[in-house]
Predict the structure.
Amino acid sequence: MIEFISQPWHWAASGAMIVFVMFLLLWFGGEFGVSGNLRTMCSIFGGGKGCEFFDFNWRAQIWNLVFIGGAVIGGFIASNYLASPEPVNISAETEAYLKTVGIDTPRTMEEGAGFVPNEIYGTENAFSLSNLIILIIGGFLIGFGTRWAGGCTSGHAISGLANLQLPSLIAVIGFFIGGLLMAWVILPQILTL
Amino acid sequence: MKFLKFLLTGILFGIVMTKSEAISWFRIQEMFRFESFHMYGIIGTAVILGAILVAIIKKVKGKTINGDEIKFNPKTMSIPRYLFGGILFGLGWAMTGACPGPLFTLLGHGILTILLVIASAILGTYVYGRLRSKLPH
């Protein structure tokens, strides 16, 4: 059983399991949207003083913080007890491109699980100029952009599109305009700084 | 006890994000470069099955565990808000290789530098809140 779960999951099984998580959240009286937690955290840290956007009853959102706390534990369990025998199987084209910008794609577990590149996320590398730009500006854009758009991949691309919301389709088109611009044009420049 | 079910659902979500490989920075580069179907398959399956789920819940007037009707709040129509906000998020997503769900899941994998991304994301949300009245919505 554990061996069966530990294999990398087929995309169809993965998509179905995401919908199962969405169903559980709806059934429990919540909803599937992760980025709202960032606003809740601002509110808990005192952001409501002098800013009405953060002056709301954050206690009503504790269930969602508990949910992402669970996601941290789930990540720990998956990495320690359900790890795949092989790293993520990235396409040869992507691997070849990444090599040209100085990122090696792991092909053995000794080189890494294939979740994050050590060249960017390794603690010994994180404090280079290009990596600080990626981690800090990237994080800032995630926080600013998701709140402006009112949701992220879970809230718009999955919950919103599943509910046939046109605003969510516009948001997803935006995600792709930004993502394509970054992946094709800007990121190669930053990585080769 | 009220929160235990959310904790367990979150644990399942972290496992799903990992085993689907949606937490992989490499998978996100591959997706935006159109060099693999994997991420499109995941999101496409989730949207189709999710649409069926939402339609059924609406049809049968599905109730929560507490007996309340499950409601879906329609989003207010606007273009600049979703388009500009979406573009900024897309830039950050392709840069860090993580959207908010994977951000927290990766922390559980012991990737401590992700804390820098999480802290910056909280700051970004805060700055948005302060500038909100000056931005088009």
